[in-house]
Amino acid sequence: MTVQRRKISSSSRCSGRRRGISRADVVVVLFLVSITAMLVVMGMTRGRENARLVFCSRNLTRIGFAIALFDQMRGELPATEIHPPDQPTSTGPPGPLKTLLRELDLPDFTDLKDPRTRPKGHNGQVPGEIPIPGFTCPSDPEAAGTGGRLPAPVSYRAATGDSPLGDNGPFAPGRIWSLAAIEQRDGTSYTAAFSERLVGASDEASETVRSYRIAAGPLTDSGCPASSGPSGLRNDAGSSWVAGDYRSTLYNHALTPGGSPSCIASNGRTAFMGASSGHVRGVHLLRLDGSVTVVAPTVAPKIWREYAAISPPEPSGSP
Questions:
Q1: How do residues 52-95 score in pLDDT, each as one tens digit?
Q2: Phi, psi (5° rounding) for residue 283?
Q3: Angle at the Cα of 139 from the Cα atoms of 136 and 143, rounded to 5 degrees
Q4: Predicted structure pTM score
């Protein structure tokens, strides 16, 4: 009996040595390898996007520092005037970013570390219409690498209000606000200052969130006029941080983040020009208290509009 058991055991071992890798084993190994590779790629992609989010948030934070410094110096926010979208960017009134650079005597905002202190050692030379470090978001490749197509690309825009009129926001054309006045009305932590918008595409053939049209105007809450195809699309959105217009440096909350279509009245006074970004999670929103948050495209329209609207004064005699 003992000898027989040994023979059986020996036979089993020999059988185990002869057994090769089955197709099922190969399938399992390939599946595990593909899952591992996919997780590695997803981790790398997520890491790059997180880095871009941080970079973009820092750009807006520095714009917030510049706004706070300007308000300390002047007791008000930069005034904004509108010029028509077909007027050359270099000949119209300056946009808020140009005004901030000029009044703070800075070539850019990269050295701003504190909302109470202006960096020392600058020569006060404000650059001309050229790309500026910190004015474009790395999640928008069209803005980060225009190759000269756009003279001075910009990803960040100042809020004019909650409707196409753009008349009740902190940077509403023709109105002048201060941080103190806004704090008394709504609170600076509840009021939008700047947000992102994708620049125009170089090869746009159909209407997207990057494009816009010129409309007869004045535009009302009913939205942009119906389009008749790709003719008339403009691809120069965000072309210059120098200008004070809806083409480049202003936006409103008439559209929720990523909404379309966009349009600007021919006189530049009214517009549907919303926020948008290349980030997966949504758009960065700089508030007047200097904080930056990410707002998802699914935000309720009412909440989004309230971010940009400064409440009117209380009626006289109200409690």
A1: 889 999 999 999 999 999 999 999 999 998 888 888 877 778 99
A2: -110, 145
A3: 40
A4: 0.82
